[in-house]
Amino acid sequence: MLNKVAVVVAFFFGKRDRALSDNSLEVVDLQIENLSYMNNDNVDYYFVVNGPEVLDIHAPNITVINRDNLGGSYGAWSHFGNTLSHQYDYVIWCEDDYIFCQPDFVTMLINKFHTCPNAGILCGFAHETTRWKMHCAISCGITASYIIKENGNMPFTHTVTKTYCDLHNIQFEWSQYFMENNRFLYDWSDQYYTIFYDGEYRQYGSGPPLLCALHYVKKYYASLSNFYQNIHNLNLKEVAKYERNTSF
User: Fold this and answer.
1) Which of 46, 44, 66, 40 is nearest to 55 (CA)?
2) Domain spans of the chain?
3) What pTM did the predictor assign?
4) What's the rounded Cα separation, in Å, for the pair 185 and 124?
5) 78 and 159 Cβ atoms separated by less than 8 Å
6) Topology (CATH) of 5-189
7) pLDDT digits (tens, 9 = 90+) for 143-176
8) Dist. CA 34–CA 57, nearest whole Å
């Protein structure tokens, strides 16, 4: 029996740092285009939009949810977790300016998730330092719906965020939620890598790429088609490889 999977992409069209372009809807077009490169059997996509802007699109396998801008991406994800996750076996979290970039990413994530003993969530990069407790430093990832059912209500749907620090605090709380009931955080960096962007490009992990910042795609490739033509030999000359450091 095939697993039923939801991919939940959090969107925000307001003012933001490191925006992809002045055209806030460009990310919508790229996200929809990216689906054409993926194997989408038994997969439903949800675009959860943090307002006040409203998105109205009609595309196969995509449901749009418009909501108030509360809790950032974690609020958008929590909204889905609290209302619709019970309809699925697995939920995959993503943000509007990132794409999963392997056609079989759903199967890859599910298989990797099940190699992790007592996993609460599998994310792009889980990290702990002398300053910061264990958390999902790259929060896009996968969880099983039964974990949300066991843990109960996801608490971020009504959180007001005014600063980056507010979102950073929610990031830690999000991670702690998936560590309830003696579960653990894992990442895929030992098997796949993520190209991350926060003003500069960094590679987290090794192996084939699994998650990629759209900002990187737009800078180095003429189109998504061109990006996928080079997916096995990406231009990483200006991408710093992150070395895990626990001393700060």
Assistant:
1) 66
2) 5-189
3) 0.94
4) 10
5) no
6) Spore Coat Polysaccharide Biosynthesis Protein SpsA; Chain A (3.90.550)
7) 999 999 999 999 877 777 666 566 778 888 889 9
8) 16
